[in-house]
Amino acid sequence: MSYKAGPHFLQIPGPSNIPGRVLRAIERPTMDHRGPSFQDLAVEVLEKIKPIFKTSQPVVIFPSSGTGAWEAALVNTLSPGDKVLMYETGQFSNLWIELASRLGLKPEICQGDWRGGAIAEVIEERLLADTTKQIKAVCIVHNETSTGALSNVKAVRDAIDNAKHPALLLVDTISGLGSRA
User: Fold this and answer.
1) Which of 76, 89, 94, 156 could potentially form a cystine with 144 if both were Cys, beta carbons 3.0 to 4.6 Å apart?
2) What does the pLDDT look like over 57-107, one tens digit per residue?
3) Where are the domains of the chain?
4) pTM of the model
């Protein structure tokens, strides 16, 4: 007699296991994305997602891959030739740096060792040294899935504020938003 233990539970950073209730929801027929039922669902989802972002402000869901979100963030907030401070924490941060270069931005890279997240003190020092405020944005990866490096977003935000620098903070939180980190 063989014993069936249940669904396989893969304990690695990805791909993620999908809960049964989500799998059952996927079985439902496709909803017309132009119809009133979808509009009702979208309004409900956009309201209920606010606590995840810790905001009372409107949330916009951008349907794309992570790369599409990076591109949208960069091209909608910056202009070619703008200098951006980007912290290297692993493969995904490096891909974001490459994309910024291809879009005509000028990445200034904080070299990391791929064993840890962005170091807020390093960012603060770089911003303090930017006395002419040429750096337009600081880009960090919250949870670098290729290495497991975790950046403290609040500490980086505080570093920008402590430096009294107007740089915009852009955060890749694709795999980290719903976590408690």
Assistant:
1) 89
2) 999 888 888 899 999 999 999 999 999 999 999 999 999 999 999 999 999
3) 24-53, 66-172
4) 0.76
